[in-house]
């Protein structure tokens, strides 16, 4: 009661005065725990080649789960241009060239991108469907069998 009267006397209205030593406590945010941002099932990825596909969804893995930079995955095309080489609902292979998750390289450097992106490949992963790759790709593609994608890219980081 005394604190409310003192606060009213200071011109603070009906709010209680807080001492400088008492921090303002906020309730914890009700959010889900943070998941790993690597490529899981049902993850949507942007397509950065000239096949006509805009967005794809991961439906299977060729090697490990979850997929990381340089891994091959199987995807279904979710949105595409009407005059492209692939159309909506096509199932094709892809290689992950950018991912949001932070990845530590053997030399100690950490790499991550602002988006999850891939390049579409033929079903048997023998080569890319497109002929041009826009934007940078990760250096981890050199270690795999995707040297053609590295050669088409404008920049390798």
Automatic annotation (TrEMBL):
Pfam families: Ribosomal_L14. One of its GO terms (cellular component) is mitochondrial large ribosomal subunit. The keyword Ribonucleoprotein applies. GO terms for biological process: translation. GO terms for molecular function: large ribosomal subunit rRNA binding; structural constituent of ribosome. SMART domains: Ribosomal_L14. CDD domains: Ribosomal_uL14. SUPFAM superfamilies: Ribosomal protein L14 (SSF50193). Belongs to the universal ribosomal protein uL14 family. This is 50s ribosomal protein l14.
């Amino acid at each position: 009661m005394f604190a409310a009267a003192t606060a009213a006397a200071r011109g603070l209205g009906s709010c209680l005065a807080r001492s400088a030593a008492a921090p303002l406590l906020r309730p914890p945010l009700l959010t889900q725990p943070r998941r790993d941002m690597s490529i899981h099932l049902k993850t949507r990825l942007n397509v950065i080649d000239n096949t006509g596909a805009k967005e794809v969804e991961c439906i299977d893995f060729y090697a490990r789960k979850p997929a990381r930079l340089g891994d091959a995955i199987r995807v279904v095309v979710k949105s595409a241009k009407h005059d492209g080489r692939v159309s909506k609902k096509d199932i094709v292979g892809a290689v992950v060239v950018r991912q949001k998750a932070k990845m530590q390289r053997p030399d100690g450097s950490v790499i991550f991108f602002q988006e999850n992106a891939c390049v579409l490949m033929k079903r048997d992963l023998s080569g890319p469907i497109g002929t041009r790759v826009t934007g940078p790709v990760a250096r981890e593609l050199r270690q795999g069998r995707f040297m053609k994608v590295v050669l088409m890219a404008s920049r390798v980081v």
